[in-house]
Amino acid sequence: MINVSKISTKITKENYSSVKIDNVNYLETDFLQKIIENLADGILILSKTGSILYANKDANHICYQLNQFLNSKNLIPPNIWYLCESLIESHSLFPDKNLILSDEINIDKSTILRIRVRWLNLDKINNSCLLITIENRYESLKNTALAEVKQYDLTQREGEIWLLHRANYTYKEIAEQLYITINTVKKHMKNIHAKRQNLFNSIHKRHFF
């Protein structure tokens, strides 16, 4: 367990893997902590000075990955801390507003991060904290696409193409990724859309009859 007091602390993989809840009173039970640890999103709780009060394993991993991409030596990636500073500064202008600031960071097609920063007020903490959620939009889209593959009863190849399509790959990129022709991609996409339309028609029919 470590308490990071400066955002300029040099990062190591050990730093990220060992950041834990700094005071058990911040979370009421171990059960709640286990829930947060297993969330798909990264969860960070920071003080107004940038000290890490809590970071779940996904936040640790994302921050390390993001800093590697940005070639930054700060423990808190600059993009995230900039949003935090903006929220802190806006508090004096809008003290009664529960503002949420957000931004997106595109690293590559499989890493599109949506950052949200808001105030967190807890009874057991005298001062307000900053709650940061970090969502990998690609992972969220992939989970949605996997559910749709089952819902539309797609074949294995159709499922592979649909996952890439939902991740905003072009037909050309899908073809290159799967080593098939663009015409093959178009043929599968036509079949996928037909299955989606059939499902929609079936649901619509049951609803009105």
Q: Strands, helices and their partners?
A:
Layout: H1 13-18, H2 30-37, E1 42-46, E2 52-55, H3 57-70, H4 78-91, E3 100-108, E4 111-120, E5 129-136, H5 137-151, H6 156-166, H7 171-178, H8 182-208
Antiparallel strand pairs: 1-2, 1-5, 3-4, 4-5
Helix pairs in contact: 5-6, 6-8, 7-8
At a glance:
The protein is α+β, with helices and mostly antiparallel strands.
- The amount of beta strand, in percent, is 15-25%
The helical percent reads 40-55%
Sheet with most strands: strand arrangement: 2-1-5-4-3
Coarse structural class: alpha+beta
Query: Would you list the SSEs in sequence order as H and E?
Result: HHEEHHEEEHHHH
Taking all residues together, what is the mean pLDDT?
A: 78
For the largest beta-sheet, the strand count, sense and barrel status come to:
5 strands, antiparallel
User: If you compute it from the alpha carbons, what radius of gyration comes out, rounded to the nearest whole angstrom?
Assistant: 22 Å
Distance between the termini: 61 Å
Count of alpha/pi helices: 8
Unreliable spans are 1-24
Could you describe the 3D structure shown?
19% of the residues are buried. The protein contains 8 helices and 5 strands, in the order ααββααβββαααα. A 5-stranded antiparallel beta sheet has the order 2-1-5-4-3.
Index terms:
209 residues, alpha+beta, 5-stranded antiparallel beta sheet, 5 strands, 49% helix, disordered N terminus
